[in-house]
């Protein structure tokens, strides 16, 4: 049996207005659905919500002694990766073998069962005499 809210004299929509200076009140049942990707601890008075933080499992490749040599061979090398609550960002160094370049970064959290791709934007020249470019994602 299906009944619609308006047939019961109820509103079809609820409008809530939030001011930029105040935090919205999020019901616990909504927060509990986010527990898949987070640690959620609730007590009778406090609600603590912590997002998982990613940390690269490698040193920044640009700091390796053979970085320049690898860039010369491969023409494209990851420089560094930064992880934060807002996501993953980083830079890629590309040898300047052509004026037009399209750079994208593909990454995974699931051993490549699925992957994400982020377009990188040109940030500026690098290297001696502009022989390389830096792209940020």
Tell me the name of the CATH class of the largest domain. Answer: Mainly Beta
Please give the share of residues in helix. Answer: 10-25%
Strand content: 35-45%
Say what the CATH topology of the largest domain is: Immunoglobulin-like
Largest sheet: 5 strands, antiparallel
How do the strands line up in the largest sheet? Answer: 3-4-7-6-5
- State mean pLDDT (0 to 100 scale): 79
Quaternary structure classification: single chain
Instruction: Tell me, briefly, the overall form.
Output: elongated
| Helical stretch tally | 2
- The CATH homologous superfamily of the largest domain is termed Carbohydrate binding type-21 domain
Low-confidence blocks of residues: none
> How far is it from the N-terminal to the C-terminal residue, by CA?
51 Å
Series of secondary-structure elements, N-terminal to C-terminal: HEEHEEEEE
Radius of gyration: 24 Å
- CATH architecture type of the largest domain: Sandwich
Describe what you observe in this structure.
The protein is mainly beta and about 140 residues long. The protein has 2 domains: about 5-50, no CATH class; about 60-135, Immunoglobulin-like (Sandwich), CATH 2.60.40. It has helices at about 30-35, 65-75, and strands spanning about 40, 45-50, 75-85, 85-95, 105, 115-125, 130-135. The chain has a 5-stranded antiparallel sheet with strand order 3-4-7-6-5. A hairpin with an 8-residue loop joins strand 5 (about 105) and strand 6. The longest helix has 8 residues, at about 65-75. The radius of gyration is 24 Å and the shape is elongated. The mean pLDDT is about 80. InterPro entries: CBM21_dom, CBM21_dom_sf, PP1_regulatory_subunit_3. It comes from Crocuta crocuta.
């Amino acid at each position: 049996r299906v009944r619609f809210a308006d047939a019961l004299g109820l509103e079809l929509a609820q409008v809530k207005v939030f001011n930029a200076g105040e935090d919205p009140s999020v019901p616990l049942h909504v927060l509990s659905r986010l527990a898949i990707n987070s640690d959620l601890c609730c007590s009778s008075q406090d609600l603590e919500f912590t997002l998982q933080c990613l940390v690269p499992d490698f040193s920044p490749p640009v700091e390796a002694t053979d970085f320049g040599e690898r860039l010369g061979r491969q023409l494209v090398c990851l420089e560094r990766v930064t992880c934060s609550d807002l996501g993953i960002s980083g830079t890629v160094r590309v040898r300047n073998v052509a004026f037009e370049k399209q750079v994208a970064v593909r990454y995974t959290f699931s051993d490549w069962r699925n992957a994400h791709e982020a377009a990188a934007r040109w940030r500026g020249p690098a290297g001696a005499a502009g022989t390389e470019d830096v792209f940020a994602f």
